[in-house]
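Review box. Two proteins, two foldings.
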Amino acid sequence: MTTDPPRPVPDRDGGVSLSREEAVATSPGKRKREDDLTAPTKPTAKRKKSKRKVEDDGDLDLEAGINKAFALMDGRLLADQLGQRLRRFEPDLSMVELNDQYISGRVIKDTTAWQKPRGLDNLPDFLEQYSPKGKLSISAKEKGCPHTIVVAGAGLRAADLTRALRRFQTKEAMVAKLFAKHIKLKEAEQFVKSTRLERLVVDASHIDVKKRGILDMRETCLPLLKLLNRPALQERLAATEKPIDLLFY
């Protein structure tokens, strides 16, 4: 007399529990193929992330120290970049707080028509392109009233920018650092409030040896956003008469 083998009992998840002998008899190759079919999507996401990283690196000219992607961004795209950086570096901010610090793309001047590489040598020509002819070498009679401010992410870079812009320096017009450590914040604010200020230029394309630009580091991006969100500057950026031009180089 023969007896039927015991039927597998479904477990609580609806699957079937295997005996030890059945588990050993299962083909390892088959298990691997089945595991591949049910593998989580995280490795795939990681591969996609790595692929995006390689594509992003294609915009970086390491020899020249330039991120070429910024040359292709209009005001709307640059505003999106600033918003993404703010969310990354301040993840605990609420939606209301994020909106309060959002920089509108309408106040960012479109410079995508500029075709030359955005290196030090071409910065003077870039400023002339987006400034009234012959005005960059003319300063206000009142001291402490610059018509142009270029914001850099590091002291050495600021020194390089100062040397690159010396061609505009005359006996009446000085090219120098502004937001240095030895200048008090209140004095810097007075510069921003000055009606003589005509343009604010962010040195966005420059990257260091670690492929980082002013928007890629928390310690430089957040102070920049804080500057751009100052009420006095916001008022001038949105003004209908004699607004300040906000440019990303």
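Next protein.
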Amino acid sequence: MKRTTRAVIIAVSAILLIPLGLLTRHFLDLGDQYSALTYARASVAGLVFHAPTTGPTGIGVKVEDKIIVIGKIESENTDWVAREIPSFALASLSPSKHPQTSLLTEICVSLRWQRAIYTVNPSIPTTSNRTLTTPINKGHEAMAYLTYIIDNYNSLPSTMAFLHPHNSGFLSAWHTDTPLHSNSDAIKALNTDVVQKNGYVNLRCNWNPGCIQEHLKNKFVTADVWREIFQGTTTSQDYPPQVGAACCAQFAVSRARVLERPLSDYEKLRQWIIETDKTDRISGRIFEYLWHVIFGMQPVQ
């Protein structure tokens, strides 16, 4: 009886230690990003940081040439994009500052982030001409990202942000580098001038996982995979000794950087996903660690 009781205690303890270990690792990871006070304040009061914003200053319409691209399955709710990141804003203008307007009115419209949200598994009843879809549901977000670039190659906006369909919360968005892991706050804080200067910006700054030393011998991007994916493209077939970037396939890129590759490159990349015998998860994970290479950065970024 004693032996059985001891075995049960050991088994229960082991089961409890696994989530405790994961939670400890998560908080250690947070310690590299924020002070405990910052995270506690955001968690309790919902005071996630916001980038300073200013309204439009002139009469008329100011078009901000940028778009958010998301791939989702049909059951995922992306209403937060329109709610948290409106595509337009109205600014009240004072008649004293603008004598040509006789009344206080909202006449200045700023078109902020446009949206391209792809449903990768549309059902027949809900499919319409307004539903953006992909050729196949495979490769996780990579299929939607590449499909957007291919379909809009000749009319791309200046700045493109590629995001997952979730907004916030540790369970789904642990990899988003804001308190409460909020994608909407990350976008509000994004400096598009930096995107234009650098060409490509990973939206995760923390190197773990993906770019710490022990991850640089990437188990997904092998020499064979590298050569298969980039065969016939403008990327060299020479496999680098290390490949690494901070996870997790959320980034911003400039139009100029996208156009450094011909359209045929993106078509070949997407076709590889369609034809490979690798699973949805694995093919998507491979691209997760290749986006920086696709957009002109060094193999370790």
